[in-house]
Amino acid sequence: LNENSSSCVFRLEYGNFSYYLGGDISGTWSRKKNNHWNDVQSQVAKVIGTVDVAVADHHGYRDSMNDNLLKALNANAIVLPVWDLYHPHPNAMKRIIDNGVTEVFPAGMTAENLAKLRDKGLADVIRPDGHIVVRVFNGGKKYQIFVLNDRSLDYEIIYKSKVFKAKGNK
Questions:
Q1: Do residues 41 and 27 touch, judged by C-beta distance below 8 A?
Q2: For residues 115 and 37, what is the distance between their CA atoms, to the nearest angstrom?
């Protein structure tokens, strides 16, 4: 076992808005003994419910964001805390896209990985890299996502999403 399987999973709700953070939990499955520790995501999927915004588990690595979890979350947007060449992994990005996520917000994506994802046709939903801010309007009925320039002390806005209607807590 490793400490990733013991990550804390967190769901935040404010009004109708909900946000998911699952740390580094994994979603892989195999016939190996004690594999249930490797597929924590499928267990979380049974209880988490739908959310508006989700942070990709384990930086979008190949063992993250399995179909069970993505279907349960049904998120409009995914935030990707990435920092190396394998974040996000093409397999995870394909699952994210195949499950209908329309906007992916990376923080720290390498140019090499973005190019690799573009070559595989997996970058259309990826927004500009930067500091990600999710602004939830008073009462939690609407939200909007901003990308700020994290290479400047002015943190100017370089991208803003449409205003989303929050789904409600299900």
A1: yes
A2: 33
Question: Using one digit for the tens of pLDDT, what is the confidence trace for 106-122?
Answer: 998 989 999 999 999 99
- The beta-strand segments (E) located in 4-74 are 10-14, 17-21, 53-55
Please, which residues bridge with residue 17 across strands?
14
Calpha distance 115→124 (Å, rounded):
12
Q: Residue 119 and residue 130: Cα distance in Å, rounded?
A: 22
CA distance 85 to 48: 30
Is the pLDDT confidence value at 39 over 80? yes
pLDDT for residue 80 is more than 90:
yes
User: What separation in angstroms does the CA of 113 have from each of 61, 65, 68, 131?
Assistant: 12, 18, 25, 18
Residue 102 CB coordination number (10 Å): 14
- Mean pLDDT is lowest, of 34-38, 39-43, 104-108, for 34-38
Which pLDDT does position 36 carry in this prediction?
Answer: 58
